[in-house]
């Protein structure tokens, strides 16, 4: 059974200027339930990540700042969100959801987090709507508990996974692959194990060709035994922040390739949703829904 992490606390009451990205966390599960892609039994409510789990990737000084709401103004500004107890709780739930997704994927081969993909969170700071790095923490959960030896993080969000790259820069057990807009946020990129920078305006055919080549090559050379997939839909031409030109069908074929490859290699895979900022919310929800539809089609 496909297990999907979701909780109403994924949706924060925010000021108007911060509200738009939050809508999808409410609308996506409703759409998936309405169309029958998932049923209530597919959904589980995540637990909070423990302190020890968080500290596998983040510094104790940074975690204490979050817990005491003592980030300074510049640190808060970099995250993009007002700092509240509800926001910190949300981040811990997202982490716990992705950790549990990893455990479910070991049983069922695939699991999904309605939120997550918080790849801009560094070991000691937050950036770009990300406070704590869910896929990094879940990867370390697998490694520390001897549930995986070689973890591949495939990040196909339009923005580089800079925080993930920094966290694992000296850890050979985790391979970070980021395919992202070359001229997009963050302006200062970190060094992933493999970075694939893309020109503005790239379209489906060229994008898919590059992606397939590099991911297949990485699979053969690194030989992972677990995959995390950051499946942001801000690669769409309709995205207000993305600057790439993928169609919705191209984005769907991207997801089909990654999920099918995991199935072909018999590897567990966890998908976290990542970004999506198209002007019309229906474009975001439909593109994210495709990821879930494909997971059901390919694995079940």
UniProtKB/TrEMBL annotation:
GO terms for biological process: epigenetic regulation of gene expression. InterPro entries: HDAC_classIV, HDACs, His_deacetylse_dom, His_deacetylse_dom_sf, Ureohydrolase_dom_sf. Residues 18-288 form the Histone deacetylase domain. GO terms for molecular function: histone deacetylase activity; hydrolase activity. Pfam families: Hist_deacetyl (PF00850). Coiled coil: none annotated. It comes from the Bacteria. Belongs to the histone deacetylase family. This is Acetoin utilization protein AcuC. It comes from Parvicella tangerina. The gene is acuC.
């Amino acid at each position: 059974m496909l297990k999907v992490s979701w909780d109403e606390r994924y949706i924060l009451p925010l000021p108007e200027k911060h509200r738009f990205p939050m809508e999808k966390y409410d609308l996506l599960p409703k759409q998936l339930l309405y169309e029958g892609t998932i049923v209530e039994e597919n959904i589980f409510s995540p637990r909070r990540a423990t302190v020890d789990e968080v500290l596998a990737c983040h510094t104790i000084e940074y975690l204490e700042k979050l817990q005491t709401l003592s980030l300074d103004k510049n640190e808060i500004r970099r995250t993009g969100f007002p700092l509240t107890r509800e926001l910190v709780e949300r981040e811990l739930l997202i982490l716990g959801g992705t950790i549990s997704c990893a455990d479910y994927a070991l049983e069922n081969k695939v699991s999904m987090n309605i939120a997550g993909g918080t790849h801009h969170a560094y070991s000691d700071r937050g950036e770009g709507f990300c406070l704590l790095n869910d896929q990094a923490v879940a990867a370390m959960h697998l490694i520390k508990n001897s549930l995986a030896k070689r973890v591949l993080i495939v990040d196909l969000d339009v923005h580089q996974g800079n925080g993930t790259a920094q966290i694992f820069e000296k850890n050979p057990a985790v391979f970070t692959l980021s395919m992202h807009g070359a001229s997009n946020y963050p302006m200062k990129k970190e060094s992933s194990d493999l970075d694939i920078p893309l020109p503005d305006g790239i379209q489906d055919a060229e994008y898919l060709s590059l992606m397939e080549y590099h991911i297949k090559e990485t699979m053969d050379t690194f030989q992972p035994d677990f995959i995390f997939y950051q499946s942001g839909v801000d690669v769409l031409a309709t995205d207000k922040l993305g600057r790439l030109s993928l169609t919705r069908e191209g984005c769907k074929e991207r997801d089909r390739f990654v999920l099918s490859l995991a199935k072909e290699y018999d590897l567990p895979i966890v998908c976290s949703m990542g970004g999506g900022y198209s002007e019309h919310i229906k474009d975001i929800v439909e593109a994210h829904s495709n990821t879930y539809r494909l997971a059901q089609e390919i694995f079940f």
